[in-house]
Every structure is written in C-alpha cells, then in structure tokens.
Amino acid sequence: xxxxxxxxxxxxxxxxxxxxxxxxxxxxxxxxxxxxxxxxxxxxxxxxxxxxxxxxxxxxxxxxxxxxxxxxxxxxxxxxxxxxxxxxxxxxxxxxxxxxxxxxxxxxxxxxxxxxxxxxxxxxxxxxxxxxxx
Length: 134
Known about the structure:
Layout: E1 3-6, H1 8-15, H2 22-33, E2 38-42, H3 43-57, H4 60-68, E3 72-75, H5 79-87, H6 93-104, E4 109-111, E5 125-126, H7 128-132
Helix pairs in contact: 1-2, 1-3, 3-4, 5-6
C-alpha cells in the first residue's frame, strides 16, 4: 500500500471546501477511507490546520480535526527533522519540515499544491489531481 504524505494545503482544501481544489482533495481522502492508500501528516500540520480553521470555526475547529484525524496517521516532528530543515536549501522552513518528516518516515510520495517549493528532491512530489489521474 502506498504511503503518502499530505501537505497542509491539501487538508485545508478538504476541510475548508475550497471550491477550486475540494473535489480532488475529497477523492484523495476517499481512497484513504476505502483503505486503498495510507495517508500521513506531520504533527506540525495538525497545529497549522487548527490555527487556520480556528479563525473561522472557533471551538468547532477541534471537532472538525478530531473527525478528520481518523483518515490519517500523524507523524512526529523530531529534533533530527528540525535540524535537517534548518540546514536545508529549501526556502520555506515549514515546507522543509514537511519534506524531512516525509523522508524520515519513508513516504512514497508527497502530495501538495505547492510543487514549486519542492524542486529537485529525492521524493516524488505530486498534486492530488496528478496522483488521482495516475
């Protein structure tokens, strides 16, 4: 079974029902719900998503995340991952943490809408739409 790391923006597409990207995010998470793929996120992602959802949903953000969390496995952000991110050539520190979390946990693919920030790396980087169309 494919081990797929999901970036924060894909989760927000799903949970905020972002019009342009919701359908492909929903299809990706439906595959996980059917046990056809295994999805992973970082602990940092859960914190970031809560922060962003809280602006609109207030205390309901926790309930939304609790329901969402059954679809994914949350991976820890370790000292090793932070050191790798701090010394990497990736411009965006949050993206570096995501990437090295995926690498440290032997992910097969990283799914994001922000491919431009993940260039020339040792892990396939796809959008949700690209993955679904494979």
